[in-house]
Each structure stands twice: as structure tokens, then as C-alpha cells.
Amino acid sequence: MPGNEMNKTRNPYIDEDGVPKLLKSVVAFIDVLGYSDLIKRAKKDSKSQELLLKLHAALKKAQRYVNPETDSISEKSLTNKNCSAFRSFTDNIVIGHPIKDDGEFELGRVFSELSYFQLVLTIEGFFVRGAISIGDLYMDDIVVFGSGLTEAYEAEHELSRDPRIILSLTAKKSVDQHIQYYSEHAHAPQNRNLLRDSDGQYFVNYLDTLLEEGDVYEEELQSHKEIIENRLVEYKNRPPIWSKYMWAAKYHNYFCDENRQINKNTKIDTTEFSLKPARIVNLA
């Protein structure tokens, strides 16, 4: 049973006497974008089993980055790797990192973990969105509870909108404080881990994981381009969904423009996919 798996490692939210304990934590709430729609379309096309296998494989591959001690997907799982907790259910994932000092280390770890997690899932065709907060949290087999979870959940539903993992107000305030620790603010690690969107939201710069010591993982970047282009074609008749993938295309292009070592042919020609008006009947 899933509960037995959890007991193999110590839950950081349960004290030595076995008493549940709220802890100030970095909390991330993530879900798969368009999950219900994916299931409905798969059923309509008689591809439910195919979708299940693809989703299961993608989550298994991506989960290693946020839950290193878990080698297989179960409905619920928890680990104390570096004093963190993880829980997965249906299309939602909750991650909790208890904070020891000011939270800079824990926030940085979550940014890194979620960057790899989001990149892997996106390349596999599963776009995600979510939110990160700082607040009280408790997690175990039975319940996930606390103001940190509530804030992350509300931010994900009300503010994330596009396939991006944003920072709630508490996390954003902490990041602003942490940047002040560095004499040159532009060189603070947060300035690379995160980007600020046009609506003012900070979000995880997950494509940054494709850069390593001046080199670019070109194959993965090309795959990222292709999956976005495919979705822009697939959803061109569904503007509310299409706009989310256009956001992803603009983020992709921003990343390409910001890094000189990237071949500009890797950019997405958004004009090719833009929605354009036309007359109902062509004029003679």
C-alpha cells in the first residue's frame, strides 16, 4: 500500500514522538495543463491506453528531479531527501521543503528541481503550470494542510494562467529580499533562475537548464520548439487554449534571443501561427 512506502523514510513534518507538526516551508503546487481535455480527447480517439503509458513514462522520468528516492510512480509518495516532502495525486503535485533559516537555500533548490521537472514534462508533451509560496505546511499519507498550500493553490488557479510556474506574493517578497544580499543584483542566482513576465509575475526560467558551461542542449531545445509548434497548429480553432501555447512560443524565443550561442533557426516563427482575420466570403 502507498502508506507503507511512506514509512520507509522519516517524514520531516512528523516529530520524533510521531506528532504531526506544521513547519514553515517552501511549497509548490503543480498541475498538468489541460489534463481533463487530454483524457477526453484520448477517449474519443480510442487512445486512452496510449495516453496512460505516455503520461506514466513522462511522470516517472520527471519525478526523479523532485523526488529522487522514488523509482516508481505510486498514487502517493513521500520522501525526506534533504528534508523535503513530495506528494502526487491525479494531475496535481505538491512539494514541501521545510525552511531552516531565511529560505534562500530551499527556494533555490525548488527552482532547480522544478526547472528540470517542467522541462522534461514539456518535451514529452505535457505542459504544466503552478505556483510556489512560503508558509506553514503539513504533509503525510492522509492530509496536506497549511496556509502555504492554500496560497500556492490559489496563486496557481488565479495567476499562473499560462504554462508557467509563478511565485506567490510571499515567495516573491523573499526573492526580492535575497537579491539584496548580492552587491551586484544582476549577478544574483535568482536573476537567472527566474524571469519577470509582462504582468509582473515572477516565473521559473526552466529553459535555463539547457545551458551548461557555455554549451546548449540543442536537441532538447529543438524538441521544445517542435512540441510548441504542434500545439499551435492543433489548437488554432480554440483561442483560449491556443494563447497558452503562444505564450510558450514567446518564452522560447526570448530564451533564444538572450543567449548568443543559440542558433537563431531554433526560434519559432510566431507570424506563421498567428490568428489572422479574413473575410467570410472572398471578394471577386
CATH superfamily of the largest domain: Nucleotide cyclase, GGDEF domain
The number of distinct structural domains comes to 2
Give the beta-strand count.
10
Strand content: 15-25%
Task: List its traits.
single chain, 284 residues, alpha+beta, Alpha-Beta Plaits, two-stranded antiparallel sheet, 10 helices, 44% helix, disordered N terminus
Q: What features would you describe in this structure?
A:
The chain is 44% helix and 17% strand. It is α+β, with helices and mostly antiparallel strands. Residues 1-8 and 71-81 have low confidence and may be disordered.
Set down the secondary structure blueprint:
Layout: H1 2-6, E1 23-32, H2 35-44, H3 48-66, E2 85-89, E3 92-98, H4 104-123, E4 128-139, E5 144-145, H5 147-160, E6 165-167, H6 169-179, H7 190-193, E7 194-196, E8 202-204, E9 211-212, E10 215-216, H8 218-234, H9 239-258, H10 270-273
Parallel strand pairs: 4-6
Antiparallel strand pairs: 1-3, 1-4, 2-3, 4-5, 7-8, 9-10
Helix pairs in contact: 2-3, 3-4, 8-9
